[in-house]
Amino acid sequence: MKAAQITGYGAPDVLRVNDVDRPAPGAGEVLVSVEASSVNGHDVIVRAGELKMVSGRRFPIGAGLDFAGVVVETGAEVESHRVGDRVWGMVHPRQRHTTAGAAEYVVVPADRIAPAPAGLSPVDAASLVVAGVTALIALRDSVRLAGGERVLVRGAAGGVGTAAVQLAHAMGGHVTALARDRHAQLLTGLGADEVLDYGSTTSDRIGPFDVIVDTVGSELHCYRGRLAKGGRMVTVGLSAGALAAIAASSVHGSRRIRTFSARPDSAVLRDLTGHVASGALRPVVDSVYPLADIAAAHTAFERGGAVGKHVIAVSA
């Protein structure tokens, strides 16, 4: 099979699409024929070498955190899925994989996939896996958004941002989206009550907010200062600077800056499917690349300015 792999840490050109042996599922695992994957911030920082403590220094490393596809083989003790099931899921972000979601086939534990939402194309489904799971856990579990609360989504036009705007709206929040002004119409259509241009809006001129969802990872202490009494802030835009700000904010109690690792389990994916089925969440795809052009997709991600997700179309 063909699989995208990181051959060394660095720029997007360290990505290669190599011919490798097709994996076989073990006990409790399934083999999925991958139809689409997507580019996520986690993929980019692993490739750049910012998570060497986790990913190590042995190459190649599999690229691609998420996937949508079809179950083609099940291992022993798997009763939750059958051959032919259309599924979506994630490899574990804290485990090292020689091949991962951006490949023609992927083996994963059966408890890390769930039935894909009916009616979504593989490209649309792949665009929602990591973005949707991240936004859902951030709002529901990390900051516990309540109806009527004022929510700021920073980086609202990106993959996680567009999902967070939609889910915050569905949960009854009053949503302010911070993004490029040219994305205002789209974000209003997704449920934002107000859209602010990040190029001309400084943190000291907005708020206060009950909840802040940050996808950028910079100036975190400035935005934390815009929380109302009892407010909560969560960031998914991790960097060395962001981690330092998170640690420093611990003295602020409930108004500290929170973060988390999105857990790729079936229960969360099923919850996400429910939001898609109800119409509360829909995909936003910026561009689609063939597997052979995954390096170009990473380059586009790092360039910024996308609306929604960069998706990798995989043909097995």
Number of domains: 2
The unreliable regions are none
Report the biggest beta sheet as strand number plus sense, adding barrel if it closes: 7 strands, mixed
Element-by-element helix/strand order: EEEHHEEEEEHEHEHEEHEHEHEHE
* Count of helical regions: 9
Helicity range: 25-40%
Look at the helices and sheets and give the structural class.
Answer: alpha/beta
Question: What is the fold named in CATH at topology level of the largest domain?
Answer: Quinone Oxidoreductase, Chain A, domain 1
Corresponding CATH superfamily of the largest domain: Medium-chain alcohol dehydrogenases, catalytic domain
Report the top-level CATH class of the largest domain: Alpha Beta
The count of DSSP E runs of length 2 or more, i.e. the number of strands, is 16
Annotated CATH architecture of the largest domain: Alpha-Beta Complex
User: What distance lies between the first and last C-alpha atoms, to the nearest angstrom?
Assistant: 8 Å
Radius of gyration: 19 Å
Strand content: 25-35%
The overall pLDDT average reads 92
Backbone shape: globular
Briefly, what is this?
This protein has 316 residues and is an alpha/beta fold.
